[in-house]
Amino acid sequence: MAQEGTEVVEETEQMIDKMEPENLISSVDSKEMRAVVLTGFGGINKLKVTKKPMPEPQEGEVKIRVKACGLNFLDLMVRQGNIDNPPKTPLVPGFECSGIVEAMGGNTKGFEIGDRVMAFVNYNAWAEVVCTPLDLVYKIPDNMTFPEAAAFSMNFVAAYMMLFEVANLREGMSVLVHSAGGGVGQAVAQLCSTVPNVTVFGTASPFKHEAIKHSVTHLFDRNIDYVPEVKKISPEGVDIVLDCLCGENTGKGLALLKPMGTYILYGSSNMVTGETRSFFSFAKSWWQVEKVNPIKLYEENKVMAGFSFLNLLFKQGGWRQVKTAVQKLLSLYEQKKIKPIVDSLWALEEVKEAMQRIHDRGNIGKLILDVEKSPTPLMANDSTETSEAGEEDEEHEGDTDNKERIPFIQ
Ligand SMILES: NC(=O)c1ccc[n+]([C@@H]2O[C@H](COP(=O)([O-])OP(=O)(O)OC[C@H]3O[C@@H](n4cnc5c(N)ncnc54)[C@H](OP(=O)(O)O)[C@@H]3O)[C@@H](O)[C@H]2O)c1
């Protein structure tokens, strides 16, 4: 992994707001770089932009000058420490980025300085520069923008592997997906459209329905009980349930499966009920899942599966399977059959606001941290609405308490 010298965590958050835009991206020759650092598990105020020593590539690693980073729901869970076996803080979050190859360690055949790439990183992606093993780096097509590439990797690979490798999606099947307007949800919808006659049932917040109705066959308000609605349309149920809301949805999903159908648990978004970790929602979710009975699965001819991309790639050595999936997905992109949907672009310094947008369920598609973007000037915030993330008792650093940034919506 990348080697770093003595850590220089210099607080720059206040300073950055006052800097000229050119200064924000002028560290190309520097021995330091800007990065988002999570100082401890908790709310969004645990995130800061700091300077870190420039990483240098080790044997088998590629050094990438980052242009864009993907912000996933998983990053909210990491921030809260709401994941299995979290690493120690301080840490630089982020699992995926796109950019330009700047240098290479030994044994890195196949890449050249200047190559446009996207890459997975085992943390540390939200920085100006990352070093990551060659096997996790993929060249991107000339017509793919850096934000598109950063929006592509995790969402589409997870969706692809679940649909085609775990559930064996085929012509004429039906799929139920939650959070259909989100990053993974839209990747699932697009990949389903590459197979003839696939029916997609989706749940999403109502304000998203107009924007995503073309991609989902039957859309339901996330607040209603979707089970009777699906049964009205398809009394026999569905072939594949993709559940990122583990808990009571697990029982509902299994009940909706046709014989020989596959239920895949791949997330627990519903455990995020506020800005900080809630043990109550964690316990409630797992209590529901614990009730699943394998003998019932056998009697009813149903398949129950789980999928964790991060574990597959970083803990279980699944890089070859991931690489094959990436190649197939890039081919679908070049054939114009799929296209990542970028919800909005944010500067590194705007990471808190970006995360808040997900807490507030505001995104359609993927949020991107654009490393070269300057923060939008702070505006006075006259909103009296309380966000879903709720208030937090922690200190509020800086002068941002009553100010907000207007996001750059694509
Ligand atoms: N297992 C894996 O390998 C893997 C890989 C990638 C992602 N995931 C999981 O897939 C799910 C989607 O990930 P994503 O990155 O594409 O995120 P996303 O769907 O873009 O996440 C944001 C959306 O999730 C919905 N949501 C559901 N519960 C929420 C909550 N408690 N707080 C805020 N929003 C909530 C909201 O949409 P609506 O209001 O419209 O429902 C929101 O707009 C997450 O559970 C994530 O952990 C798993």
Give the helix/strand layout.
Elements: E1 10-11, H1 13-18, H2 21-24, E2 32-38, E3 47-53, E4 61-71, H3 73-80, E5 96-104, E6 116-120, E7 129-133, E8 137-139, H4 146-166, E9 174-177, H5 183-192, E10 199-204, H6 209-212, E11 218-221, H7 226-233, E12 238-243, H8 248-256, E13 257-265, H9 279-289, H10 294-300, E14 303-306, H11 309-315, H12 319-334, E15 342-346, H13 351-359, E16 366-370, E17 379-380, E18 403-404, E19 408-409
Parallel strand pairs: 9-10, 9-12, 10-11, 12-13, 13-14, 15-16
Antiparallel strand pairs: 1-3, 2-3, 4-5, 4-7, 4-16, 5-6, 6-8, 15-19, 17-18
The site of NADP nicotinamide-adenine-dinucleotide phosphate (NAP) has 29 residues, from α3, α4, α5 and α13.
Number-wise, the strands total: 19
- In CATH terms, what is the fold-level topology of the largest domain? Quinone Oxidoreductase, Chain A, domain 1
* Structural class by sheet pairing and helices: alpha/beta
Q: What is the global morphology?
A: globular
- What percent strand? 15-25%
Uncertain segments are 1-28, 381-410
Output the radius of gyration: 21 Å
The CATH superfamily of the largest domain is: Medium-chain alcohol dehydrogenases, catalytic domain
Main beta-sheet strand count, sense and barrel state: 8 strands, mixed
State the helicity in percent bands: 25-40%
Count the helices. How many? 13
- CATH domain class of the largest domain: Alpha Beta
Ligand species: NADP nicotinamide-adenine-dinucleotide phosphate
Distance between the termini: 35 Å
> How many separate structural domains?
2
CATH architecture of the largest domain: Alpha-Beta Complex
What's the overall average pLDDT, rounded?
Answer: 86
InterPro entries: ADH-like_N, ER, GroES-like_sf, NAD(P)-bd_dom_sf, Quin_OxRdtase/zeta-crystal_CS, SV-ATPase_mito-regulator
GO molecular function: oxidoreductase activity; zinc ion binding
Protein name: Synaptic vesicle membrane protein VAT-1 homolog-like
Family: Belongs to the zinc-containing alcohol dehydrogenase family. Quinone oxidoreductase subfamily.
